[in-house]
Design goal:
Dna Ligase, domain 1; four-stranded parallel β-sheet; about 20% strand; seven-stranded mixed β-sheet; 15 helices
């Protein structure tokens, strides 16, 4: 059954009417015609975020190419783009720069390039001198982008802007950590400066440590390099908020929206698997969310799509900065379905179109969104959520991470992979642990 769905997904990746052929050396095949003569768009990345970004731009009648280097290509089965093979993961090589400049040079106009990971956002900024003549992307020096992406620089900038930050230490000595942990009670969260940073021994998004002695042992054993130590405040699922938006080249936010993470994977600490836009609850809280985010992005002088993550502490009602995504985010398709297409607005801004019609906080359709596969994976870990309650939340949803009736191929492929894993378990052929979540 899984193989049959996979073959069907491949067959559904077909050109739309009026396809155009790209240069043969890239083996791109047919893709969407750009009737307005606008530049193409190149999406860097291979996650569901990349897929949602592709769909958002294709909805605006833009030619879209998806460039990834690994085997996990979420856009491979989409009918809305053509996939390109990059020379190396994250593009951290001279070959990758040469590849992108050569490809961009083969197009009629310099394309818009949108990264969907921190690594790719940093890579574009690092190689600005070589890439800028060939393509269009958000303005940011490597130093400025690193300050935003790396939590130590971000938290320092936030404090300068008078924005609340969770009590933290960056790369502490054992003496500093000992004194700080006496003043800040357990539990604690440990985080790398940013995901995939090579100099940090913590190879995950975060690590929860329940007591002070365990914290001291861990840092003494593994070292503090590129490590953030935070006090874990009350909150979690339902209390993590996001402000999504777009800043122009002057660092001014021109559109913002609110989002609440009702459930995350893993629970309380991970990525959204069930959320709502706009966030429900107090209008006063949403106004504070917009105020703090506006203050932060203006101080940073940021340009482009952003998703700023906040913790709403239930006891004090205060908001604390957690993270800054200097790129599209996992639920950007949810925002598009609610009425705010940030990838398309970013594209228009980069090609010089006028966006004066935008309201800073536009009215949006209230929608619930779910990443069904991720949410199902965490169901067993949630003692307060049974099948009936889960089905009720599913039926509330008007937006999904993978399913799209206009682009069913990725959903069919993921469903086929999930069935393959399930049937393999049922007949005793258990896959390796890293296949517990089917990947594209």
């Amino acid at each position: 059954m899984g193989a049959m769905l996979g073959r069907l997904a491949t067959q559904l990746k077909m050109p739309r009417p009026g396809a155009y052929s790209a240069p043969d050396e890239y083996d791109l095949g047919p893709t969407v015609v750009n009737e307005r003569g606008r530049p193409a768009a190149v999406i860097l990345g291979e996650s569901l975020t990349a897929l949602a970004t592709v769909r958002a731009l294709a909805g605006g009648q833009v030619q879209v190419f998806s460039a990834s280097s690994g085997q996990s290509k979420s856009t491979r089965y989409s009918r809305l783009c053509r996939t390109l093979k990059r020379p190396m993961e994250h593009g951290n090589s001279v070959d990758s720069v040469e590849w992108l400049t050569e490809f961009c040079g083969s197009l009629a106009q310099p394309p818009v390039v949108i990264p969907t990971s921190d690594a790719d956002a940093l890579w574009l900024a690092r190689n600005e001198v070589a890439l800028r003549p060939w393509c269009r992307y958000s303005n940011a020096s490597f130093a400025d982008m690193l300050r935003i992406v790396s939590k130590d620089g971000l938290y320092a900038a936030a404090l300068q802007a008078d924005v609340p930050v969770v009590p933290s230490l960056s790369e502490p000595s054992m003496a500093e950590l000992g004194a700080w942990s006496l003043a800040h009670a357990a539990p604690y969260l440990l985080k790398p400066f940013y995901n995939h940073i090579a100099t940090c021994k913590l190879r995950r998004k975060n690590l929860l440590i329940d007591d002070r002695a365990a914290l001291l042992r861990y840092v003494d054993r593994e070292g503090p390099r590129s490590l953030i130590v935070q006090r874990k405040l009350d909150g979690g699922d339902g209390f993590i908020l996001d402000c999504y938006g777009l800043c122009n080249a002057g660092g001014i936010p021109i559109a913002m929206a609110s989002h609440r993470r009702l459930r995350q994977s893993p629970p309380n600490f991970g990525s959204t698997c069930f959320g709502e836009i706009p966030m429900g609850g107090s209008g006063t809280l949403e106004a504070k969310l917009f105020e703090y985010t506006n203050r932060l992005v203006r101080h940073l002088g940021y340009h482009g799509i952003f998703g700023v993550e906040w913790l709403h502490e239930p006891i004090t009602g205060e908001l604390f900065l957690i993270d800054f995504n200097a790129r599209p985010f996992s639920s950007i398709g949810h925002l598009v379905d609610s009425g705010l297409n940030l990838p398309m607005l970013a594209y228009r801004e980069l090609i010089g179109e006028n966006l004066d019609e935008l309201r800073p906080t536009p009215s949006l359709k209230h929608l619930f969104w779910m990443d069904v596969c991720s949410d199902l994976q965490t169901l067993r870990a949630r003692n307060n959520l049974g099948w009936f309650e889960w089905m009720r939340s599913l039926l509330k949803c008007g937006s999904f991470a993978v399913w799209d009736s206009n682009d069913p191929g990725p959903w069919l492929h993921l469903t086929g992979k999930a069935l393959g894993v399930y049937l393999g378990n049922r007949i005793g052929r258990r896959p390796p642990s890293n296949q517990s979540r089917p990947e594209f």
